[in-house]
Amino acid sequence: MTETIETEDHLEEALSRPTAADVDAMRALDGDLLLLGVGGKMGPSLARLARRASDQAGVRRRIIGVSRFSEPGLAAGLQASGIETIPCDLADRVSLQALHDCPNVIFMTGRKFGSTGQEWLTWAMNVLVPAMAAERYRSSRIVVFSSGNVYPYTRPEDGGPAEDHPPGPVGEYAQSALGRERVLEFLSRRHGTSLAILRLNYAIEPRYGVLRDVADRVLRGEPVDLAMGYVNVIWQRDANSVALRAFAHCAAPPFVLNVTGPDTVRIRDVAERFGRAFGRTPTFVGVELGTALLSNAARCAELFGTPEMTLDGMIEAVAEWVRAGGKSLGKPTHYQERQGGF
User: Fold this and answer.
1) I need a labelling partner for 74 at 20 to 30 A (CA). Which of 34, 119, 155, 164 fits?
2) Helix axes 20-28, 43-56, angle to 10 degrees
């Protein structure tokens, strides 16, 4: 039985609650921590997780979040949690150069949705901006969020590609994600910058993610698309925990890691479970094809252990939240997209 989460404040607390491993990681890390792109879906809880883990470790450390902070109240909320905030457009080279020096950097900025028709902007945000940031912080340890979209579609029965699998990005967003990795590898090899590249595939919590997308469709009586019949998911707090602990593995050339859960999740099965939770009979459109976008997380589990939140726990938490009318971030994942158009 998972913890029942009834309010957003409770959810935010749970998503930023450190484990003993997080506390140990922050105790071992030397220096302040800068989060570039802290204003996204995962950034605020990651910043709070780092703050709480550092405090529990007894380490005096500045946690600094950088973003355009277009969401009202976000900067004030982070400041109330002990996180310094700096408004900045990271695509502006002068503003980027003016930021604090910092020995530890997490780079979270990226663009996926809205790419179709504005591919130029997606390439700039996913390739040019990370390159500028890596040049600026060439002497720092940098943990970078990338995407499992760099892989080709593979058969579910094969367990997903491991980190040494040849890339095969589908569509310009995925190609730009691979472009980000390639330019960062170049800069790491050129300057000796220590990097960890995390290929995330898919982080979830009750307000967004693949499971929320499926749950919403089942509750509304809308058909669930089976074109992408299988996915991988990981609880957001577990993914953020890996990000903090990945500093210990930063290297030149970069350390690359798939970050996701151990299960190959069948969309039809998930929809049917939500149907039972909501007293609805799900309907479906399309058919399961022979391949899907998947990742093999065996290396991640070997280094950091199996994620604390199980698949059953995630489904239960999302079902309870949706059934109670809990808030959605209104940011669908489009996990079913097979042509790479976002």
Assistant:
1) 119
2) 80
Neighbours of 229 (CB within 10 A): 20
Domain count of the chain? Answer: 1
Alpha-carbon gap, residue 165 to 188, rounded angstroms? 21
Domain for residue 342, yes or no? no
Report the candidate in 299, 258, 304 with the shortest Cα–Cα distance to residue 24. Answer: 304
Q: Establish if 340 belongs to a structural domain.
A: no
Helix pair 43-56, 236-245: axis angle to 10 deg:
60
Q: Which residues contact 158 (CB under 8 A, 6 or more apart)?
A: none
Secondary structure (DSSP) of 279-322: T----EES---S-B-----HHHHHHH-S-SS-HHHHHHHHHHHH
Please tell me the number of Cα atoms within 13 Å of 170 on its side-chain side. Answer: 18
Among residues 111, 112, 90, the alpha carbon closest in space to that of 34 is found at: 90
| Rg (alpha carbons) of the chain, rounded to whole number | 19
Handedness of CA 130, 89, 335, 323 (dihedral sign): positive
Structure confidence at residue 162 (pLDDT): 98
Sign of the C-alpha dihedral computed for residues 121, 126, 131 and 134 taken in this order: positive
70 lies in a domain?
yes
- In whole angstroms, give the CA distance from residue 293 to residue 270: 17
Q: How confident is the model at residue 1 (pLDDT cuts 50, 70, 90)?
A: very low
- Let me know if residue 300 belongs to a domain: yes
- 296 and 258 Cβ atoms separated by less than 8 Å: yes
Residues 20-34 have pLDDT tens digits of: 999 999 999 999 999
CATH number at residue 92: 3.40.50.720
- The model's pTM: 0.96
Domain of 50 in residue numbering reads as: 8-323
- Reference 78, options 53, 56, 46; nearest CA is 46
C-alpha 243 chain-centroid distance: 9
